Batch of 3 targets.
Target 1
Amino acid sequence: MNTIAQLGLATATLVALSGAGASSSRKLTVVATTPDLAALAKAIGGDAVEVKALAKPTEDPHYVDAKPSHIVTLNRADVLIEGGAELELGWLPPLLESARNDKIAAGSPGRIVASQGIGMLEVPATFDRSRGDVHPFGNPHFLLDPLNVKLIVARMAEHFALVDPKAAELFKANLKTFDAALDVKLAEWQKQLAPYRGAKIVTYHQDFVYLAERFNLEVVETLEPKPGIAPSPAHLAKVIATMKAKNARVILVQPYQNRRTAETVARQTNAVVLDVPQQPGALKNTDTYFELMDYIVRTVATALQETK
Ligand SMILES: [Zn+2]
């Protein structure tokens, strides 16, 4: 006679086995922590994948509102793509623990850490999270540099093929198409921003450094004194002085940042506040990486032209 405990175990095994059997015909379930990674996964996975993002386009990727539905989503995932470098430290680890899914365990083909292999900017000389800095391993907002995206999509294609070998050719073809399109777009974006070489910008959070580096802009100040630390009056006074001294007249903000703080600074520096979401889908017609970058480059270039 089976005990109840044994029966329970047998049922769980059967459910797991039937799930594995069904996977030969179904699409790969890919979960990305943020919409930008999800958009890239869709481009590479095409019809062979079903992609979900945990964070909303209007949510701060450092502080996502963790929900029970996220645990279910992670439990059913074949692949998890995370930004890494502690971008999701505040919310992802407990969700993963509850999801109990070996397929997306660290180090398995079903786990992709986007930051691996990226030349990280602003890596601190000493590791110190004690003062609240949310970038202890360097700056995790690296997708605004298209060359970083190239590395990440290549890794997605590799991992997808390991998890779903029968679709390997499709992933390879999609990667090739994406790469070719990215080369064309990168040249366009560089041309659009070329007249503003060395232009000075201010951002709320330290989240545009990779864009600045690739396209030769300079982030002269951030409204936050440190990543993740709210602006203080003393710090904002310093920001205003720097902006006046360096004639920086563009402030970039994201949907989840305090626009009123940016507006207060802008009033005292004759600057403009630009809404520049980094997540696809936060604004209309920015659902793909290309559409999003088109929007960002156009918005920044226009503002730099008008404040020249
Ligand atoms: Zn950050």
Target 2
Amino acid sequence: MKRENVMIPKPRSAYLSVQCPKCGEMAVVFSHTTTDISCKSCGELLAEPSGSKAVVLGKILGALDQ
Ligand SMILES: [Zn+2]
């Protein structure tokens, strides 16, 4: 069975707590974002849209329940 989103802890839409791999700044990223998410501090790309789910490039620390 193919798993396409092993990095994403929950299959449903969620807000993910992501840490910038470059400077360590924390950011909240919507798991189905349709726009690029960049680090507020250093501008590093943290997530980008890919089909229905975002590709998260930073370190996912957890999912925030809504
Ligand atoms: Zn950063």
Target 3
Amino acid sequence: MHDVTAIAAPQIQPAVGKNSNPRYTELYRRYPTIDYLRRAARHKLPHFAFEYGDGGSGKDDAGIRRNWAALDAIELLPRYGVMPSLPPCDVELFGRRYAAPTGVAPMGSPAIVWPGADRHLARAAQRARIPYVLGMAGGATIEEIAAIAPDVCWFQLYRAANNDHAIGFDLLRRAAATACNTLVLTLDVPVRTTRAREVVVGLGGAFRPDLKMLAQMAMAPGWTSALWKNGIPRFASLRSYAGTNPSINDVIAFARREMGGAFTWEEVAKYRHRWNKTLIVKGILHPEDAEKAVALGVDGLFVSNHGGRQIEALPAAIDALPAIVKQVGKRATVMMDSGIRSGTDVVRAYALGAAAAFAGKAFLWGLGALGEEGPGHVIDLLIEETQGALGQLGARKPDEVRSVEIRHTAALQF
Ligand SMILES: Cc1cc2nc3c(=O)[nH]c(=O)nc-3n(C[C@H](O)[C@H](O)[C@H](O)COP(=O)(O)O)c2cc1C
């Protein structure tokens, strides 16, 4: 028989949720789920900003819809009679305690969706104690973000291989000099693909607002005032390499020249050699690639299809997850992203063996609906829903959900 008095209290008390955010109830009544934030973001943002954050690749965002449908299709069978109160959902990742098995996935130029986004995301993640992955193509430097979010900051790199990785290795050196303890190498963007919604709103290349974009900005006063305050710095971590006092478009052009292709396994090995803290690869969908990464000494990986932003023919990350957990789960920390829109989705991924399930677009919808308050509300919703789903399933802590019966008929078999 379970000893219900032995249920552990949460080991850390994150400053989130209805107990600490005085506006939580008000926000919750307007935005009780992440879908409500998406709907509001569509109306409140300049059209181009929403399209940048919300769109995917290929025809009709089919990859995004596949991620959502695959998660929705997973059923978890509850056990009752054991769960008297809301369970804690804090977890350990790479030796650090986090408030929930979720985090903010790396994003390039989230500041297009909401100027100042990188800093708002970092602040909210630090307050709540969930991981925040700063994108190399983000709008704040690794030094700034590590100062804002010293306990939760991770840093993502794309390949910048010119002059024997001069910039990539220098970014690694800079990250090592900050509080950032985790480096994420993205492998799943070997080529640039078309994201149609970005192209038609005029975001295909340099940032040159045309009349249409200016008219959209004029209709979005919240966004425009955030623009006055923050500007839209892009590739901020790369700015210092791009010459004296470069303009935003100089930095964009420089970044396009320097960044390209995706890391080869030989290059992953070089980064492993130089980085002695936690190393993660992102974008894995095949168990044999997971095996290669682990053989090179990588500590963790993200099963991901880049949120449906590369090509729409990729399988849903959640469907690739179980086989990858089976292959390397005992030797590395397997996490996932792509399609997470609720704490229930986080619990689905956790039940299937993910140590954490991160979200990207959900945080952009939060920013679009609520500006700088948005990321905190998304985190509050994710945590409360995670606890709610664990409780409903009779799991007194996250690990117990791994023993529920799961129907996952689309799981990839290798
Ligand atoms: C606007 C946007 C920009 C992104 N930029 C990056 C990036 O610079 N590096 C990266 O590794 N992933 C990037 N991603 C992918 C995310 O890290 C993550 O894999 C994806 O968003 C997860 O799917 P979701 O949006 O359905 O949660 C980006 C995603 C979005 C939405």
